Amino acid sequence: MKTNRETLLKALRFARLGTALRGETLEQSNAFVFVEDRLITFNDEIMTSSKSPLDFTAAILADEMLKLIDKLPDEELDIELEGEEVVLKGAKRTAGITSFKDIALPYDAVPK
Question: Which CATH superfamily is domain 2-103 in?
Answer without folding.
Answer: DNA Polymerase III, subunit A, domain 2 (3.10.150.10)
